[in-house]
Design goal:
single chain; 122 residues; alpha/beta; 2,3-Dihydroxybiphenyl 1,2-Dioxygenase, domain 1; four-stranded mixed β-sheet; 2 helices; 8 strands
């Protein structure tokens, strides 16, 4: 019955900082189809028919202690076509990451709001 993931949504307390990460570091381009809503946000295409949504809303879990390794936290896994390029961009931006503990070609990092992201080599 389930045929794929339509979108993953993350809360952000600072949309400008989040955009700098998702656009500047990850290279995503905003999707202009986002309708007017009662809160600010942005949508990004992340593959055919898949999106990442950012919502500028208070984080109800602010101050919650997150696991050091993103693989032990809620996360979304995104396929990447060039893992070396992603690593370079994360290093240049000073964003810490950890490699998958399973030995797979994958790494984990956190966005500016501490949302965990996994990137898997395609």
């Amino acid at each position: 019955m389930i045929i794929g993931i339509h979108h993953a949504t993350f809360l952000t307390a600072d949309l400008d900082k989040a955009r700098a990460f998702y656009e500047g570091v990850l290279g995503l381009v905003p999707n202009s189809a986002r309708p007017a809503m009662s809160f600010d946000g942005i949508w990004y295409d992340a593959g055919v028919g898949q999106q990442i949504h950012l919502m500028l809303l208070p984080d109800v879990e602010r101050g919650l202690q997150r696991p050091a390794h993103g693989g032990r936290d809620r996360h979304v896994a995104l396929k990447v076509s060039d893992m070396r390029r992603l690593v370079t961009r994360l290093d240049e931006a000073g964003i810490p990451y950890s490699l998958s503990q399973s030995g797979r070609g994958a790494l984990f990092c956190r966005d500016p709001d501490q949302n965990a992201l996994e990137f898997v080599a395609d």
